Amino acid sequence: MGDANIGLIGLAVMGENLVLNMEEHGFKVAVFNRTVSKVDNFLAGGAKGRNIVGAHLLEDFIALLEKPRKVMLMVKAGKPVDDFIKLVVPLLQPGDIIIDGGNSYFADTVRRTKELESRGLLFIGTGVSGGEEGARRGPSIMPGGSPAAWPHVKPIFQAIAAKVADGSPCCEWVGPNGAGHFVKMVHNGIEYGDMQLIAEAYYIMANALGMDADELHETFGRWNQGDLDSYLIDITTQIFARKDPETGKPIVDVILDTAGQKGTGKWTSQVALDLGIAIPTITEAVFARCISAVKAERVAASKILTGPDAKYTGDRQQFIDAIRDALYASKICSYAQGYALLREAAKEYNWDLKFGDIALMWRGGCIIRARFLDRIKEAFDEDPNLANLLLAPYFREQVNACQSNWRKVISTASELGIPVPAFSSALAYFDSYRRGRLSANLIQAQRDFFGAHTYERVDKEGVYHTEWLSE
Question: What is the mean pLDDT of residues 196-207?
Fold first, then answer.
């Protein structure tokens, strides 16, 4: 029997960085990769002189591990995970643990947990957020799966996770089966929303005010000192300062405006539709990437379709401040939608999600880390049954304070022909949520008219149908 504390399969950059992180925190790590030359290159390179061992055969790799064996997969989501599980399972014994650290779909994690537990093995599906740098210096880690596995991996995961100011690790047990990967999926959905909202703020300032990269760098840097303080605002500030070495232009101006996606934002929207939860801002962020992808069509359409293309002529600084308020209010709504989805998932899948702890896990290491996550933690500490973040005193006050500027920015952008789908959807969500009566009564009448789908009444209990064509 070996003495490595944990083994990792998949030596791409994320995998290598996690291994180095683990080793630096006092753990002996075994590594394996399907392309065995990567093992040799890693051991001769970044792992040289460290307490890291490798193998060319899976059997030899497993033999390097102490019991219960802990095997972490850092491979592409989907079939590659299942393929490696099939290869590893025959080499393991009851009580051994397989960990999937990729961006797997939560339903796959539910299935894998059930299948492996039926064989006497334990399974963890964990979200790992923070990108390459996070993996190396401290990611946010969101584990779920077999509860019996948690005590065995907790010392490793909490040691390598990001730490916040009070030393708390950005890692805690989320819940059974697919809970960890679900929380990571929602994190990524919120990330989509955050990125689109920031991009819209930039787009308004660049197009309505003609602000150049230097001015944008200064403005975002100033915003990052206040309530908007976050990783994404920080890197946006840095992006505007970077010049392209070939042309000397700001590099943001030479990057093609077609955004890619790996699917987690889409999954978030699909699950929200399945559960009947409105997350329009996150979904609009996904759609914004979709429409960005049809670049050739948009260029052709720009020569045919017309609309306003004017500059803002009012007070410049006041409008910049208004954009900041619109961004903050929209961000609050986006997070409120993400947490509403988590709340419904907890009921649907019988997960005892600790919403405040989730905010804690997102305070450091991950892509959406931000100052105002402390406010989310406080809100759920005060009311664990909080129905919606917008109802918490702090967020209610902030949205009310930003509301006038928020509306001004969206109406002005519309008048100037500047698309702001995420800003607009966030405001529509807020206006819908704050109204006691919406237009759905007419929809119910229409459904009953053409399909006899019935309806309820406002003045008495029961289910009713009208014979619409009888008079």
Answer: 98
